[in-house]
Amino acid sequence: MSSPCVSSSHLKNKSDYKLSSPPLLSDLPLREIPGSYGLPFFGAIKDRWDYFYVQGEDQFFRSRMEKYNSTVFRVNMPPGPWISHDSRVIVLLDGNSFPVLFDTFKVEKRDVLTGTYMPSTSFTGGYRVCAYLDPSEPAHASLKSLLLSFLTSKHEEIVPLYKSCLKGMFDELEDQLRGKGRAEFGPPNDVVSLEFVFRLFCDGKSPLDTKLESKGPSMFKKWLICQLAPLKTLGLSKLLIPIDDFILHSIRLPFFLVKGDYKRLYDAFYSSATSYLDKAESFGISREEACHNLVFIAGFNAFGGFLRWFPLFIKWVASGGETLHRELAKEIRAAVRCEGGVTLNAINKMTLTKSVVYEALRIEPPVLYQYGLAKDDLMIHSHDAAFKIKKGEMIFGYQPFATKDPKIFHNPDKFIGNRFVGEKGEKLLKYVLWSNGRGIDDPTMDNKQCPGKNLVELLSRFFLVEFFLRYDTFSVEIGTLLSDTTVTFLSLKKATTSA
Ligand code: HEM
């Protein structure tokens, strides 16, 4: 392994990985990993059908966890034949064993971003982009350092930029509510998310002022769907399930379907992201490789992440009801009044607001899966047993179970807005794992933690600030589209007091 893996920060984290470890892990009884992969081919198809059509994600894992009386077991993960060459995994469902997936000494993160298959590199200009690289590959360190350094340089600009992107969104939602009695959150969220990401990386330029015009969001969405289809379902009626299964899970959607869109996206970034690409050259990365990486960061990591995250976030804040909304509005308006505006200082004072963001990220993490290949024979520990994993076996963590582990979180299935407030609450941050790392750790070039971690948490807090400066409370209707949550506002009650 090359040097990037052996930094002091990494070693520090490594010893910290024993989350809520029982006093002596070595005292835990050694247990054979339960579960079976079934017959070759047929076992993988059966598990895929259980997962998508018979049981659904949660029940798929829950029923097996109960059957084997274990939070660690063997199963096949979709898509399986003919897309994955090997769908066998060892599942981790508790908060104790899960963090082994963050330990890049123990697991290899090469080409596992999407799990047991990897989309063709045609979707990324022929390059294996940063998110598919293991930290032992030198390109990972240079690409990730470039991004981290760029984001640090933009720190002060992030809130004002997001504020200006959000400006029209609330007016548009209100117009729709007045006209139709309901307002879909998805379309304005698409526009705001791309506007923000593009302007962040492209020296303030709007995608509307490029050849993308207003088509950027739909181009990115088509490109995303082609790569992620094997993990989705259209939710069709029973009779049409075989078609859904064949098209999405048995064949790969070819790149030529989106070739023209990708070229226009690439060209728009290439001609607009001047300072990012200049900086890349100073990091020894060619403009071309940096730009294909940038399209992926902007479109897959950031835009794709925001499309999934913000609807989930609103759904959970809505579930807190008027009482939570009133408390948030009170905290936000008082801090803004006291600081004389929406400053970083004011945002940092809002402890409930911060906690609500963490609680939503805990209860329904936007990215559900994490994968890693055992680099060597290794031992993992759930709360009540030790398990041996062999070199080369695929380890898979289903995060919503790990972050709703009843041995770590009291009332884990309940959205408790103030769960992370105060000293006791902050101690729980290390169990919030949404960023592919612990809530108290930072992304570095040596780990695989999301470099957008702080940015996402800050924007989410800022979103609440803008929202509750404007409204007292709201209600929504929740739906699903292509396995993602959709939100439609049914009411937005204007603020009766001001900051
Ligand atoms: C809500 C939005 C976001 C979510 C949910 C999200 C989630 C994640 C997750 C779970 C990973 C780890 C994937 C894995 O290896 O298993 C990741 C990695 C990554 N994210 Fe994010 N992310 C978001 C926003 C962003 C933003 C805004 C950026 C850039 C500005 C970004 C850039 C990246 C990159 C480059 C990686 C790969 C890191 C590496 O290879 O070490 N993400 N993200």
From TrEMBL:
InterPro entries: Cyt_P450, Cyt_P450_E_grp-IV, Cyt_P450_sf. Keywords: Heme, Iron, Lyase, Metal-binding. Heme binds at residue 450. Gene3D superfamilies: Cytochrome P450 (1.10.630.10). It comes from the Eukaryota. GO terms for molecular function: heme binding; iron ion binding; lyase activity; monooxygenase activity; oxidoreductase activity, acting on paired donors, with incorporation or reduction of molecular oxygen. Its cofactor is heme. GO terms for biological process: fatty acid metabolic process; sterol metabolic process. This is Allene oxide synthase.
